[in-house]
Specification:
This protein has 4 helices and no strands. It has helices at residues 9-13, 37-45, 58-67, 71-81.
Length: 84
C-alpha cells in the first residue's frame, strides 16, 4: 500500500496565492520593441527579455546596467558577450 504524500505545512506557506490572471513567473512583455534599448533594458531589469540581447546592443546594455546599480545584470551581459 503506497503512502500518500502531502506537502509539509512549511512548504505550503512558501507558495503564494496568485490571482488567476497572474503568471507564476516573470514573462517578457508581448509588445516589446526589440530595436529600442530602453524597452529591452526594462525587460532585463525585470529578469526577462534575454532573447533580445545581441551583438549590437550588449555593450550599451551592460554599461547602462552598471551605471544604474545593477552589477549582476552587467556581469551577466559581459559574460554573454565573452566566447565560451
Amino acid at each position: 500500500m503506497a503512502a500518500s504524500h502531502s506537502p509539509s505545512r512549511s512548504t505550503q506557506q512558501l507558495r503564494p496565492e496568485l490571482p488567476a490572471d497572474v503568471p507564476p513567473f516573470p514573462t517578457t512583455d508581448a509588445e516589446i520593441d526589440a530595436d529600442d534599448l530602453d524597452s529591452v533594458y526594462g525587460q532585463l531589469v525585470k529578469g526577462v527579455g534575454h532573447e533580445y540581447v545581441n551583438d549590437r546592443n550588449v555593450d550599451e546594455l551592460a554599461r547602462r546596467a552598471e551605471e544604474d546599480g545593477h552589477p549582476i545584470l552587467a556581469t551577466e551581459l559581459r559574460e554573454w558577450k565573452s566566447p565560451c
